[in-house]
Write a structure and sequence with these properties.
Number of helices: 3
Number of strands: 0
Oligomer: single chain
Shape: elongated
Order of helices and strands: HHH
Length: 68
Amino acid sequence: MAHPSTKQLLQQLIDELPDDATIADVQYRLYIIDAANRGRDEIASGSGIPHARVAAELRAKWGRATET
């Protein structure tokens, strides 16, 4: 699925911000949007890590033998 254009994304972000938003608020939201988009692209390309593998690695690292 195609992402909205950068211009559309920025217009939506600005429309949703409160009137007292700071530049830092804008930067944070852009960072989150970019991270989510990169994650979606990774999954779509098949290069993401499957949930089951992540869960198994976390259980092994933190000592939980079973899922809850």
